[in-house]
Amino acid sequence: MPLLLRTRSIEGFFEQYINRIANRVVPPLFRFLAHLHLGHIVCEPDERMNMRERVFWDEGVRRGIVLWAYRMFPKGNTFTVATYAGKTIVYDTIPHPNGASSYGSYWMDDKNMCHQIFAQYAIPMAKGRAVFYYRDAERIQRSINGPVIVKPSRGSRSRHTTTHIESEAELRQAFIKAKQLSPWVIVEEELDGFVYRGTVIGGKVIGILRREPALVVGDGTHTVAELIALENTNPKRGGPIFHTIEIQSEEHDKELLRQGMSLMIVPEKGVNVTLTQKASRGLGGGATDVTDETHPDNVLLLEQVAKILEDQLVGIDFIIHDITRSWKEQRRAGIIECNSSPFIDLHLFPLVGKPRNTPGALWELIFPQEQT
Prior knowledge:
Layout: H1 2-35, E1 40-42, H2 51-62, E2 66-71, E3 79-84, E4 87-92, H3 111-119, E5 128-131, H4 134-143, E6 148-152, E7 162-165, H5 168-179, E8 185-189, E9 194-201, E10 204-212, E11 215-217, H6 224-231, H7 250-258, E12 272-274, E13 286-289, H8 296-309, E14 313-320, E15 334-339, H9 358-366
Antiparallel strand pairs: 1-2, 2-3, 3-4, 5-8, 6-7, 6-8, 9-10, 9-14, 10-13, 11-12, 14-15
Helix pairs in contact: 4-5
């Protein structure tokens, strides 16, 4: 593995020079192909661009950056050309600040590699590892005192991930589900708390979000069903970013039962009642900005992870029970995964809290502007 990483680092060194040449040659090539009707030029964001691309484009225009894009096929990738102060870059979705792949970009999306490499730096992570065979998954479950999580070694955005596994039957079902996406499956200790997303740009934490599954907070007066109805009156839940909470699946009933709850129970004041374990906005999930209340040790941990990755842009998912206290004081806290191309738009549109201009921070690395 070390030899492979060194080889890829050398590739990244040459990639910087290749990108410099491409940034000069590719834009006129795009225009020539469009002239031959082999694709077309896009001069402003359209319905084909996702929110991450749109907010980055909009922030670029606000900063005086000239942007246009090329698309060869109706459903193909959009390649964007950005020019500012005589410098031009070409990128797909969002650019990498280094102009080339970083040391960590080759392995940060692989959860098993993160386990192996972060262990060398004493970065807190859940106990467990990637396995290929089910019998190894059973051994890990027996060695962990408490519930486990099973997920694919790569990707999924919470799909094919199963939580609160305590029995062998649950483990087998979860293992088969994860195998649908990846031959290697992570079996690890279930950490305690919400999932948080920290985005580090240029070595500094720009924003930290608590990514919440669909939930309501007890007030000691209303039932769970009534709290859901009240939460759904929030105008931000009218779409397109956040959506109303809908109760219509067996998963919701199972999650309520796990907490000793039902739709007709009145939760005590301040008690969080979760309705699913998936932190998906499409399923009624929310997001709260907690950047200002995060303990300094937790901020330093995220910045240390980015330093190990040697990457200027990284999204880091971690679990912790109390974000206002140091991770060192909380046993079941740790990093769960890293993302080389994070959704920087998440920080612009929290359901609760202050928006963070992550697109501006990224553009500042690429095209620094003079401070006035």
